[in-house]
Specification:
Number of helices: 5
Structural class: mainly alpha
Radius of gyration: 13 Å
Strand content: under 5%
Distance between the termini: 19 Å
Shape: globular
Helix content: over 70%
Order of helices and strands: HHHHH
Length: 98
């Protein structure tokens, strides 16, 4: 999947989540930011911790999201498209740089 199609997929999944509660909106935003951090890490060939810091987050930002994403997906706080985007990017990072 190309980078532009991933961004379009994220945008589509976010636009489908209009009936969510404010807490789940925060969760969706966190996952989107995690995706951006992983994309930045892949593009700049840097660690996820360094990419997190360079994007204004703590060094454990993405690992905290990884810890909570399964629960949030099971509770339907995030949509399948967003979940799959995060997981596939995470696997891509692990294969290329991890």
């Amino acid at each position: 999947m190309k980078k532009t199609s991933q961004k379009k997929q994220i945008t589509k999944s976010v636009s489908k989540t209009t009936k969510q509660t404010p807490a789940s909106d925060k969760t969706v935003k966190s996952v989107e930011n995690g995706i951006k951090v992983i994309q930045y890490a892949i593009k700049n060939k840097t660690s996820i911790s360094e990419a997190s810091r360079q994007n204004g987050h703590g060094r454990n930002y993405v690992s905290d999201i990884k810890t909570r994403i399964e629960k949030n997906y099971a509770n339907r706080a995030i949509k399948r498209d967003l979940y799959n985007s995060f997981k596939s990017l995470s696997k891509t990072y692990d294969k290329t740089l991890g």
